[in-house]
């Protein structure tokens, strides 16, 4: 299994604040694995809102192509959660982000992840070139 390459939290410039619910736990009393995908999605939304890159009607201009999550400690609900998020690669039609999911109360890392996003043309139903303003906003923020 490929271990997600996530920069040290001190190097990540954006932290999203999220919250788990008591109902997010499975029958073993830990966060259900699907909840981590929701936490990553929520952190993406906050990141791109911060960069002014949320599309019309609050939609993303990309789709999720692939995610790799490494679970490091059992998450709990309800809890305040911090998700460190950064963009680590910009391609011509895609980009990669790295994430660290942490318990806000004790800073314990619950999971690390990477995700590849693909710029998407919903009319053509295919990948599309990355818009220049989108690329510039990310590159300027991340120093890429």
Structural write-up:
It is a single chain. The chain is α+β, with helices and mostly antiparallel strands and 144 residues long. It is 20% helix and 38% strand. The chain has helices spanning 33-50, 132-142; strands at 14-20, 62-71, 79-90, 94-103, 109-121, 126-127. Strands 1, 2, 3, 4, 5 and 6 form a six-stranded antiparallel beta sheet that branches. The model has no long low-confidence stretch (mean pLDDT 94).
Short descriptors:
144 residues; alpha+beta; Thiol Ester Dehydrase, Chain A; globular
In short:
By secondary structure, the chain is an alpha+beta fold. It has a single domain, classed as Thiol Ester Dehydrase, Chain A (Roll), CATH 3.10.129.
Q: What is the fourth-level CATH superfamily?
A: Hotdog Thioesterase
Strand content: 35-45%
Q: In one word, what is the shape?
A: globular
Measure the end-to-end span.
Answer: 27 Å
Q: At the third CATH level, what is the topology name? A: Thiol Ester Dehydrase, Chain A
Average pLDDT over all residues: 94
- State the order of secondary-structure elements, H for helix, E for strand: EHEEEEEH
Low-confidence stretches: none
Helix tally? 2
CA-based gyration radius: 15 Å
Structural class of the helix and strand makeup?
alpha+beta
Number of domains: 1
Number of DSSP E strands: 6
Set out the fold topology.
Blueprint: E1 14-20, H1 33-50, E2 62-71, E3 79-90, E4 94-103, E5 109-121, E6 126-127, H2 132-142
